[in-house]
């Protein structure tokens, strides 16, 4: 009798698993598209600048990297706090709070952008102080000064994306991002070549494209019936409990930045190796490849973050746990496929970036390591997404600090400079950090009491609602 009784239960569990998987993929695929399209804006600009000359390309490349480290990654992290707040509020049917949280997020990122703008304005001085080439630093400084208005647009854009994502509204973001991407190509051609603004034109095109995307999404939020319950107009409540928002936003930013900066640090360390030109070139190719694949993981992480936050806010502990299990299965499957493709194309991938045989052979040697790091990075990205849905940003920031700066970077230095494994050793160090991060996140998820997480989510929503009502 027990076997007969268990079969329907098993079928129901399988059915629930499949339904959850379909729900997450319906969210994740558009989110992957959005992240890829936004990432392509910078890539397209660099392609146009590359036709102006080596100095202009070097300056724009350094400027883009500097902007990502000191600006975009910080704003992305701050905006990610809305994944917890808006996601749980939506699950709890406190729809009006989504608009309040989003406006509060916009207030915070705009204020922060003024400070980041000062850093960007002094890009050339900072780079020279760090020992970079004067001519390249000067070119990078000009590029980033023209890019300053994009800071404000990017921060707002991240808030709007989270506002829509947590309501499972993703198609409008794909449409606006695609339209912006197509128009960006025309803008770059017009400003860089036709009007002869050079690299400044590429920076201006970035600014215009980010603001166009913001305006399009803002118009949708303001006039669409799908957002009518969640956005009821501008509210002075956005200026309430800023400190409470920062308690979640600051750890969220640290969580993302600590990981992002460690990868950039590996490229900088490659410049200290023997034959730095070769090592830096290969590590830069590796990093660019890693970021391309990472866009898939970001989409999956955003989907599970939304699902977990929605279910916790709705009081469904079992569904939240199921969402994490499904996301882990999807991430593992995606990681195996991407890893296999990475290994299969190892002998031709380097040819896309260089004609130098030495670079092509080195890239082929490091690609299996990239396959492993992509698998681990994708898995941890999904688990980190689930953590954001729960509001574990502070815990994850501590985990990332330990994984990357106690394990990854020291191991990278040891393997590269003491055991003389060069760039391969640097990337092995990153794999060590990713392994620690992934294992710790798995253990935390396995030991989580999801009923307690529901209680915390309900308390967070009620406390915020009570504060804003007051």
Query: Unreliable stretches, pLDDT < 50, 5 or more residues?
Result: 1-11
Annotation, overall tally of beta strands: 0
Going by helix content, strand content and strand pairing, the class is mainly alpha
Through-space gap between termini: 57 Å
Order of helices and strands: HHHHHHHHHHHHHHHH
Count of spatially separate domains: 2
Shape: globular
Mean pLDDT: 90
What percent of the residues sit in helical stretches (DSSP H or I)? Answer: over 70%
User: What's the story with the biggest beta sheet?
Assistant: none
Rg to the nearest angstrom?
23 Å
Number of helices: 16
Percentage of residues in DSSP E strands: under 5%
Family: Belongs to the multi antimicrobial extrusion (MATE) (TC 2.A.66.1) family.
Membrane topology: Multi-pass membrane protein
Pfam family, one: MatE
Keywords: Membrane, Transmembrane, Transmembrane helix
Descriptive keywords:
2 domains; 0% strand; mainly alpha
